[in-house]
Amino acid sequence: MRSVSHKMLDYRLLGHAKTIILFIITVAAMFSIFSADGIVSQVHLQSSAIEIEVSEVFQIHTTERRIKSTVAGIPLRITEQEIKEVRSANQNSLNPPLNVTEEERIEWFRKKLPEFEIFTSNNLSRKFHRRIQEFFNNNKCEVQFFMTWISPAESFGRRDFLAMESLFKLHPHGCLVILSGTLDSMQGYRILKPLLDRGFKVSAVTPDLAFLVKNTPAESWLHEMKSGNKDPGEIPLAQNLSNLIRLATLFKYGGVYLDTDFIVLKSFAGLSNSIGAQSIDMVSKNWTRLNNAVLVFDSNHPLLFKFIQEFAATFDGNKWGHNGPYLVSRVVERVAGRPGYNFTVMPPMAFYPVDWIRIGGFFRKPENRADSRWVKAKLLQLSGETYGVHLWNRQSSRIRIEEGSVMAGLIYDHCVICKYVYSS
């Protein structure tokens, strides 16, 4: 009897121990999960992140497949790489087909409309205006900056991150809003976390396009586009929507818009109501083309209204630049000298000190003494009257930054984390 009692007691103790061990393992696992992603210090960001995570689960659920564990047959979610592949495929499927008639493209667009999330309203986009106001009101912003990102979050690369670093290097008390549905997510938060951890004020916010264009000439354009009766053109619609979003955002809130391939070299605090010339006539010194990669305007500025009006009236999705650089050039040429418009056209050295044809030279290391002298002279020149360098990402994204190059010098002087310079 005694041996039986001892055995029963042993089994009870063993069972009790197993329960305790299981509890400890569970708590440890939960702690590791939470600590891996980091704890969001801002309450608003934390609550938004939870909403985003829940919505992402439901959005991905329709395209995710389940796989079985080879060990215990436990259903697991697909890997992160597979999710990226699904999202990338979905993104590519929204690029208009080439070599088709306008009627065929409009028919394709009608079928794809439900997949264009930028046109739909969700829990995050409905809070857009409130979140923007809270972000700016709760922070003492030296300058209000905006960027747009309509591509997948995983394509936000190291060079795009360097652009943000340079912004905060010169504006440690500035505030940056990235208008993006894809970065307004847990994945986006992890991308921005190194800056947030250092106290910089940056937030990704899902835009509400209908709200942004309300009571502007683009409101009817958006309604027609969402009805599926307008030709989106051969150029990916996201590119043209970015052109509209930057104009409407500055018209609504005012501030500085920057492309994500722009390295900031000088404070924007003293600038107002300015646009940059991309090129000038070498004889007359008059500008020949403007660009919209950098815009500095007060809210409700009449020139911004004219830009939006031109976008809605002359939209053409088949011509690269027609709704962007060429648009601002057309409008400024028409209104120049008219009363009621107060703005400055900055010279090319301000924002576009190197054109897209020669941008590659900024990335290459010097091969001889003459090259080294040129690099030093160029860095000295840029340290004067240049507010930043537009990198012309379409031409330079595949060019590696080489040690000793102009780009290497610029980044090392204007970065805050300074990692992965030569691999970006």
Describe this structure in words.
Keywords: Membrane, Transmembrane, Transmembrane helix. InterPro entries: A1-4-GlycosylTfrase_dom, GlycoTrfase_DXD_sugar-bd_CS, Nucleotide-diphossugar_trans, Put_A1-4-GlycosylTfrase_plant. It holds the Pfam family Gly_transf_sug. The protein is globular and about 60 Å long. It has 424 residues and is an alpha/beta fold. It contains 16 helices and 11 strands. It has helices at 2-37, 43-61, 80-92, 102-112, 128-137, 158-170, 186-197, 209-213, 218-226, 237-253, 302-314, 325-335, 348-351, 369-385, 393-396, 406-413; strands at 67-68, 75-76, 144-148, 175-179, 201-205, 255-258, 262-264, 274-280, 287-297, 344-346, 388-390. It has a domain at 118-349: Spore Coat Polysaccharide Biosynthesis Protein SpsA, Chain A. α9 packs parallel to α11 (302-314). The strands form 3 sheets. The chain has a 7-stranded mixed beta sheet with strand order 5-4-3-6-9-8-10, sandwiched between helices.
List the quaternary state of the chains. Answer: single chain
| Unreliable residue stretches | 1-18, 29-90
Distance between the termini: 75 Å
CATH class of the domain at 118-349: Alpha Beta
The mean pLDDT is 83
User: If helices are DSSP runs of H or I spanning 4 or more residues, what is the number of helices?
Assistant: 16
Order of helices and strands: HHEEHHHEHEHEHHHEEEEHHEHHEHH
- CATH architectural group of the domain at 118-349: Alpha-Beta Complex
In CATH, the topology of the domain at 118-349 is named Spore Coat Polysaccharide Biosynthesis Protein SpsA, Chain A
Silhouette? globular
Protein name: Alpha 1,4-glycosyltransferase domain-containing protein
Pfam family, one: Gly_transf_sug
Keywords: Membrane, Transmembrane, Transmembrane helix
